[in-house]
Amino acid sequence: MLKRRIVVCSAAVLSATAASMTAAQPVTIASPAVDRWNSAASSTPGFRPTASAFGASGQPGFEDYFVTHFMIFDSSSAVAAGLGVSNYVINSASVTLARDPSTTYTYDPTVDSLDALNGTVADDAGRPIELFGTGFRGGFDSSTYVEGSAMETGTPWGPAGSPFAPGVRFAYPTDAAGGSLRDVSSHIQENIEVSPFAVGAIDGLSAGDTVSGPGEMVFDLQLTPDVVLYLQQGLDIGLVGFHAASHAIAGGAGDPIFPSFYNKESGLGSASLTFDVTIIPAPGGVGLLLLSSIGFSRRRPSCRTTPPV
């Protein structure tokens, strides 16, 4: 039995007939059901206190988005699932990450184009932290991928003879282009332009500044048709997954130079999901927007935990 506390902006139980819509309500889910450092190098899959996000572009055998901060939110704890994809009207959505102060890096609040990443046009300083959705392979989906699930096939370092092989992680970042859940982990090598859901922003910083110390990074999702459909599908299932990824290159002596964020296991912070949704009741039915400002317990196979090994 997994206990989770859900924090919301207001407490209400709203219902509507087929002829009306529920009032929009901002909701914040204070912590993911699942979060992890999505890296073959992790010896504690699903239970590490921090998750870094950096790339390995141009290195054979490595994915461009080499390691990511992966999270799944249980949205059914705040908004009723199963109402039909088109019945969720997304007004806004954002993800907030808690920064790990043990690392520093250059702040870049803008998307870097494929040409900039390839070095064919002028580039700016730093690499943005980008937010993507998540796709699954290997028989997993958002309801069966749990804390401590295997990260990929073969050994913890990848299939035999091919460490860090691309295209084998069971959970991977996707831009949900055209409604598909394509894997964008190696998009530079594959010469594919991608559209992240959002780019991380930090209040008080300008492009080129150094990110250091504790604080938050906020991702306000761009509500393109692809992103809206992805969120609607997640709300209908009751589980919404994301990856924070970057092409920043890890390095540095002393203070490490790459983005890193707290997982809930840290006890010092975690990711949170805030969204504003209007429910259109299904024909002949009643739409429910269920909000609660108190903690509760419920059994969900997607959110169970297994002990670290």
Write out key terms for the chains shown.
309 residues; mainly beta; six-stranded antiparallel beta sheet; five-stranded antiparallel beta sheet; 2 helices; 19 strands; 29% strand; disordered C terminus
- What's the number of extended β-strand segments? 19
Stretches with pLDDT under 50, minimum 5 residues: 1-20, 283-309
SSE order in H/E notation? EEEEEEEEEHEEEEEHEEEEE
Q: Write down the overall geometry.
A: globular
Bin the helical content.
under 10%
Head-to-tail CA distance between termini: 20 Å
Describe it:
There is one protein chain. The chain is mostly beta strands. The protein is 6% helix and 29% strand. The chain is built from 2 helices and 19 strands. Strands 5, 7, 10, 11, 12 and 15 form a 6-stranded antiparallel sheet that branches. The radius of gyration is 19 Å and the shape is globular. It starts with a strand and ends in an 11-residue tail after the last strand. The model is unreliable at 1-20 and 283-309 (pLDDT under 50).
Write the layout of secondary structure elements.
Layout: E1 2-4, E2 7-8, E3 12-16, E4 25-29, E5 34-38, E6 50-52, E7 68-74, E8 88-98, E9 105-106, H1 114-118, E10 129-136, E11 171-174, E12 198-199, E13 210-211, E14 216-220, H2 225-237, E15 239-246, E16 260-262, E17 272-279, E18 287-291, E19 296-298
Antiparallel strand pairs: 1-19, 2-4, 3-18, 4-17, 5-7, 6-16, 7-15, 8-14, 8-17, 9-13, 10-11, 10-12, 10-15
